[in-house]
From TrEMBL:
It comes from the Eukaryota. SUPFAM superfamilies: FAD-linked reductases, C-terminal domain, Nucleotide-binding domain. Its cofactor is FAD. The keyword Nucleus does not apply. The lineage of its organism: Eukaryota, Fungi, Dikarya, Ascomycota, Pezizomycotina. Keywords: FAD, Flavoprotein, Oxidoreductase. Belongs to the DAMOX/DASOX family. D-dopa binds at Y230, R293, G321. FAD binds at T183. This is D-amino acid oxidase. The keyword Oxidoreductase applies. One of its GO terms (cellular component) is cytoplasm. One of its GO terms (biological process) is D-amino acid catabolic process. GO terms for molecular function: D-amino-acid oxidase activity; FAD binding.
Length: 349
């Protein structure tokens, strides 16, 4: 077992769990996941439970690897464990690539098509649809933990003040030679990292019991900057997520009742049938929620960095509003970097 590489993954959001999952499919790693928040927790510092989570690629064409790889895996999984649903994206000039009328991902989906003008919602310029997936995060995150336990990964709680502490947290007692930093927005204040390029993009949502398909996803809305419109029914009784906001630089994790009213009003305007034509009064609210998307100037940080002679940190954080739809791509990137570290260690021995 001396050549077993001890890996400690810090963070149990979709980035940390998926990184650990893909690592655990290889022999020769002893893997421990340590995190402050775990699936089942709801806290503004923990973005993953709050995601829609649907698939609308956001990278430019040069960065398409992460979302393309992830889509192929999610499609396979969706056929096994989730219901697939349709996506409708509408154009009104918000994050350039995302809603461009000729995005690179036209070719990624089996049935991508432009919609005729009659099917475009009032106030928008163009629309398209394709079969995507909507992940029920309340089912999917615990499912990831189950996969890890089956593969022998140890998952435990811990709050780190400094990334260096991870070195001593491997369950075998041997010091970690690799630490995967998947702490999301936590890397803004985590000692040893304190990345000033990270910033929150606040997302407020309303989760309701009412159901409607296909999904709706619009760029922006006439309610002003940062106010979006999306309606995403989650699989397996997960309710429907009404969104939302894209509030850059705002750390406030309390839902704002005025924002919630506007979110619900926009959703029932787009899908009156969901509320039986009774407007907002026809909705049955499960919960109001706020999550902070871990955005980063310069994009996701996927790279390795020596902590000292014996331990290397592999960073995988800063996934903004696309952490699910890029999760398998970036996790595969983590596996490649950890593999490189392992080969270099082996060459030195
Ligand atoms: C409203 C909303 C809608 C979204 N919709 C979508 C969508 O449709 N599609 C999509 O792909 N993405 C979506 N996202 C984005 C997605 O949720 C994030 O990109 C993703 O969850 C980031 O995951 P993560 O694992 O990097 O970070 P997180 O989920 O935030 O996890 C961070 C982990 O690190 C741990 N941690 C942090 N600091 C420490 C410390 N000091 N010590 C120990 N542990 C620590 C935390 O406890 C946690 O376990 C949405 C986000 C929001 C808020
Ligand atoms: C909204 O959901 C609630 C709870 O499931 C249900 O009682 C109500 O009839 C729904 N409204 C409509 C119009 O479907
Ligand atoms: C140990 C380690 O990797 N530390 C780095 C974490 O990230 C910051 C930048 O955000 C670097 O300055 C640290 O060297």
């Amino acid at each position: 077992m001396a050549d077993t590489v001890v890996v400690v993954v810090v963070g149990a959001g979709v980035s940390g769990l998926t990184s650990a999952l893909l690592l655990s499919k290889n022999k020769g790693y002893s893997i421990t996941v340590v995190a402050k928040h775990m699936p089942g927790d709801y806290h503004g510092e923990y973005a993953s439970p709050f995601a829609g989570a649907n698939i609308v690629p956001m990278a430019d064409e040069a960065g398409k690897r992460w979302e393309s790889e992830t889509w192929h895996e999610l499609k396979r999984l969706a056929q096994e464990i989730h219901r697939r649903s349709r996506d409708l994206a509408t154009d009104a000039g918000f994050p350039a690539q995302t809603f461009s009328s000729a995005p690179w991902y036209r070719g990624l989906f089996d049935d991508y098509r432009d919609l005729p003008p009659a099917d475009v919602l009032d106030g928008y310029d163009s629309a398209s649809e394709y079969t995507g997936v909507c992940i029920n995060t309340a089912v999917y995150l615990p499912w990831l933990v189950g996969q890890l336990l089956r593969n022998g990964v140890v998952v435990k709680r811990g709050i780190l003040a400094d990334i260096v502490e991870a070195k001593a947290l491997g369950h075998t007692g041997r010091p970690a030679s690799v630490i995967v930093n998947a702490t999301g927005l936590g890397s803004h204040k985590l000692g040893g990292v304190r990345d000033p390029a990270l910033y929150p993009v606040r997302g407020q949502t309303v989760l309701v019991r009412n159901e409607t398909t296909p999904m709706v996803l619009c760029s922006g809305s006439s309610d002003g900057p940062g106010e979006e419109l999306y309606v995403m029914q989650r699989a397996g009784g997960g309710g429907t997520v009404l969104g939302g906001t894209y509030d850059v630089g705002n750390w406030d994790t309390e839902p704002d009742p005025n924002v919630a009213s506007r979110i619900m009003a926009r959703a029932v305007r787009a899908r009156p049938g969901m509320a039986g034509g009774r407007g907002v009064a026809g909705l049955s609210v499960i919960r109001h929620a706020v999550g902070l998307r871990p955005a980063r100037r310069g994009g996701v940080r996927l790279e390795r960095e020596a902590l000292d002679g014996a331990t290397t940190v592999v960073h995988n954080y800063g996934h903004g509003g696309f952490g699910y739809q890029s999760s398998y791509g970036y996790a595969a990137g983590v596996v490649e970097l950890v593999g490189e570290i392992r080969r270099q260690r082996a060459a030195k021995l």
